[in-house]
Design goal:
Layout lengths: L1 E6 L8 H13 L6 E4 L9 H9 L2 E8 L5 E9 L3 E5 L1 H4 L17 H12 L4 E5 L10 H6 L3 E3 L18 E3 L11 E6 L11 H5 L7 H22 L11 H13 L2 E4 H9 L1 H5 L4 E9 L8 H11 L4 E8 L13 E4 L7 H6 L1 H22 L1
Parallel strand pairs: 1-2, 1-11, 5-6, 6-9, 9-10, 11-12, 12-13
Antiparallel strand pairs: 3-4, 4-5, 7-8
Helix pairs in contact: 1-13
Length: 379
């Protein structure tokens, strides 16, 4: 039996490669002679750099950048074969970088993400992949653009500051000092978010609360993003407000398109393409995938949906294993998943599940393999 393993990480417990190791252990309890091929995957959020470096045999680099609160931190990015770079905005501008009590979504900046892009340009790369999940920010990519040399001036011609609170003050965009190395670079934004920039489904309204924004701040941030989009349209000729994915990472999706010439692509689709997943499918009898939780959203742009759609086209069965399975998860069957299994098999606190994640995944896979064994005996 040939098994292609391509699971997302289980956030807070297991990396994509650690999940793969536990899957192997569970399979070998039933099929000792099984063969494996592992493809580390992610959807553009946490684990994207690790997945792509592991898949392609790249290496890591560390650089000092500016955190969302203005402090200096170290951030890691990946250098891939073929003069390609992969970065995660979360490494420089992510929510976990700031303690909950210190979070200030109004002032939080993506400047560090711009510094990561500059570091990528220093590598003389041809392509830059940017995963934009897990942001602490809601500045429309303002800080990222400032780090790349853009100047944003108020009505009196003065440079504005950092953060979403400054967006309403932008009147003029000065491009005279923009890093010229951006030209000729292909920049691919990887994300699984389709939200527009503004409105009820926009960056501030949907994701502002989890970043600590009050209802009043959400309204102010939304007005700022709308004003920012209008200035960009007027001075740069780009219509961004309703663009698919513009609201990702507090509007960074729109900012990267406007100020870095980026293209937005499904995170899992981009990673599978780079990893040569479609070609690897030709080798496999079964695909095993998964993520921390399977719910209705798993069918829309997540790791499981991307993998199962490709496997379905090749008529290869897909097993999805996750920490938990919630109502609406059956939607993934339509995407090509053959069956799914939850690792957590009894009521338990999240902390207990995280502490025992390795054995829970291993045992879940063993249950799946024994079910497959029954099917083989019946046939």
């Amino acid at each position: 039996m040939k098994l292609l393993l391509a699971s997302d990480s289980y956030k807070g417990s297991l990396s994509t490669m650690q999940v793969a190791e536990q899957i192997k252990k569970g399979v070998r309890k039933v099929y000792a002679d099984a063969e494996f091929m592992c493809v580390p995957v992610a959807d553009g959020g946490e684990g994207t750099v690790e997945a792509m470096v592991s898949s392609l045999g790249g290496e890591y680099r560390t650089v000092v950048v500016t955190a969302p609160n203005g402090k200096k931190i170290e951030a890691v990015y990946g250098v891939l074969p073929g003069k390609k770079i992969v970065i995660e905005m979360a490494a420089a501008s992510g929510l976990p970088l700031i303690p909950a009590k210190e979070r200030d979504v109004m002032s939080a900046t993506t400047y560090g993400t711009g510094e990561l892009i500059r570091a990528a340009l220093d590598e003389d790369c041809s392509q830059i992949y940017i995963g934009i999940g897990g942001s602490a920010t809601n500045d429309g990519g303002l800080g990222m653009a400032q780090a790349l040399g853009y100047s944003f001036l108020d009505k009196d011609g003065r440079e504005i500051g950092f953060g979403g609170k400054e967006l309403c003050r932008v009147e003029t965009i000065d491009t005279s000092k923009v890093d010229k190395r951006l030209k000729g670079r292909e920049i691919i934004v990887m994300c699984d978010v389709i939200n527009p920039l503004c409105g009820e489904l926009g960056a501030a309204a949907v994701y502002g609360p989890q970043k600590g924004a009050t209802p009043e701040q959400i309204l102010e941030l939304d007005r700022g993003l709308k004003h920012f989009a209008e200035v960009i349209k007027e001075q740069m000729g780009m219509e961004l407000e309703n663009m698919r994915g513009a609201g990702a990472a507090g509007g960074l999706g729109a900012g990267l398109v406007a100020f870095a010439g980026a293209k937005i692509k499904s995170g899992i689709d981009a990673i599978l393409e780079v990893a040569g997943f479609e070609e690897k499918l030709k080798w496999a009898d079964i695909v095993i995938t998964g993520e921390g939780k399977i719910d209705r959203q798993s069918a829309f742009g997540k790791v499981i949906s991307g993998i199962s759609k490709m496997a379905k086209d090749k008529d290869i069965p897909v097993v999805a294993v996750s920490g938990s399975i919630e109502y609406g998860a059956e939607a993934i069957y339509e995407k090509g998943v053959t069956t799914m299994e939850a690792a957590v098999c009894k009521p338990m606190h999240l902390d207990e599940a995280i502490q025992n994640a390795e054995v829970l995944v291993e045992n879940a896979i063993e249950r799946v393999m024994r079910s497959i064994q029954i099917g083989q005996k019946i046939s």
